[in-house]
Amino acid sequence: MQLQQLQYFVAVAETRHFTRAAEQVHVAQPSLSQQIRSLERELGAELFSRARGNIALTDAGETLLPLARRILADADTARQEVQELGRLERGRVRLGATPSLCTGLLPDVLRAFHDRYPGIRLLIEEGGSHDLVRELARGALDLALVVLPLPSPSPALTTLELLREDLVVVSSPEAPAPGTRGRSVRVSDLQRERLVMFRHGYDLRELTVAACRAAGFEPDFAVEGGEMDAVLGFVRAGLGVAVVPRMVAARAGRDLRVTPLTRPGLHRTIALAHRSDVAPPRAARELQRMLTEASGAAGLPR
Amino acid sequence: MQLQQLQYFVAVAETRHFTRAAEQVHVAQPSLSQQIRSLERELGAELFSRARGNIALTDAGETLLPLARRILADADTARQEVQELGRLERGRVRLGATPSLCTGLLPDVLRAFHDRYPGIRLLIEEGGSHDLVRELARGALDLALVVLPLPSPSPALTTLELLREDLVVVSSPEAPAPGTRGRSVRVSDLQRERLVMFRHGYDLRELTVAACRAAGFEPDFAVEGGEMDAVLGFVRAGLGVAVVPRMVAARAGRDLRVTPLTRPGLHRTIALAHRSDVAPPRAARELQRMLTEASGAAGLPR
DNA sequence: CATCTCGATAGCCGATGACTATCAACCGCG
DNA sequence: CGCGGTTGATAGTCATCGGCTATCGAGATG
């Protein structure tokens, strides 16, 4: 039994006429006759009663017809759906990102992506780099925005650097400016400040703590454990200062004092990770492209 | 897209392994690879991510899989159903019969047929010969039990004589026996009787009336218009006598007097009719066979 | 009776799917 | 670090099959 034979069969059943059915399916009449015969032979039953000028379905034909129609319809649907997938009219991207990135780079790009491909569902998983890497390897994510270096690097993952972000110190405009030199602040100056610190899992936490230790002191937390918004809120309220990406600080509005770090300062490298062994789906590749483009404009060069 | 390709595709999707899938579908691995490739080319999308030792479905594959399964299942169902039809495990026979035949020959044969082929639905249409012939020609019936000669014979119908039935006179045991000679009665004797007559449409009505006229008189109806059961009931109640097939009279029980007609008496020829241009369905042919057999035993020879 | 219609048949040809042999990449093992 | 083993891809060959044209044959038609 072949799809083509079913198609021929349905054409004959509909036209009740071999010659016209042959025209309808764009094939010579003998070919169609032959295929119908072959289908009948395989099924072990006549499908049509071939009374001259009065082709009619037999019981077997009557039984087969609805199934044949359904099979052909399903085959059409299959073709349709796969092609829509290819044209990014449908589909899904499962993107992981660290919380700080969700606040920074992501919203604009996701907005642009969704405007361009409204049929693609975007599933965002917010989590620490460690979790994201695991989910990627499990195949539960197509792409992840992570901060380099990865906590558990693996050859199974390919990373593509997107951009390097400066970190800055934010503080309440009402409190005295941090540091001693006004325009910028050194890491060591943070020893005199109390910090508002993210919860465990934020790469910014590890990064900041590591920087303080490298400068020879243990940071002093005024409060710790919040998400990005909470941290900014605490800072705004004057509980302490925080080290955040410049982009986040810029978005946070005017009611925060932003003080850059003295050179070389602190940075973090944001990268896009995906499994090395399988190419990400079309839609994920397209999102990857848009992210690369956006961050290229935003700034890997600098 | 071909059913075979879908089968191969599902096999690979299930085993996640080309070589094992090839074994499962009894084909060499390169053939399977090639078919999958060809399917992918036609659909314009990769169906599998071929990471060594980790074959996985792509989005497109994931989309196709459920449809492919369903298509294959439908194809199986189709094969199954058509074959059950051939083995008379399923199906239907649409049989027409005149009312008097429904009472006579039919019940036993239908019982035997149904016992033997419990999966076949039996649809009986009771009607006058004229209606039955029309329904046959329309294709609304597969077979019809009719009384010859047909009111509107047509080359489009083939008839096969089944048996000749004697007609007898039935009367109430409490009334005086009809006729004058005790053991049998002549048609002309019916002039002195009042008849219980079937409704229009019964061949027995036409036949009896024609016989009376041939004998030179117009029959006198005590009551007319009933079905077979009603007629027998009226006769039993003593309203009059009736001319019915011997087989019906025999079934009607002891509380009816049965008087044969003097030779040559009256007969009717029962035949099986079907369209000449198309062979009846398998199940109908089988019922035809059983009817022929049963009536052969019952009596065409005599 | 000639003609037309329409499905079946015959014969041929190119496409295609299956096979064997082999390659290439990757894995695990010593 | 090299070496078989595994596994999917590739190459080349061949038989099959589906498509085509030409033609037949049975009914309908005028």
UniProtKB/TrEMBL annotation, chains A, B:
Keywords: DNA-binding, Transcription, Transcription regulation
Residue ranges of the TM segments: none
Pfam families: HTH_1 (PF00126), LysR_substrate (PF03466)
Keyword Membrane attributed: no
InterPro entries per UniProt: LysR_HTH_N (IPR000847), LysR_subst-bd (IPR005119), WH-like_DNA-bd_sf (IPR036388), WH_DNA-bd_sf (IPR036390)
Limits of the HTH lysR-type domain: 1-58
Family according to the record: Belongs to the LysR transcriptional regulatory family.
Protein name: LysR substrate-binding domain-containing protein
Lineage per the UniProt record: Bacteria, Bacillati, Actinomycetota, Actinomycetes, Kitasatosporales
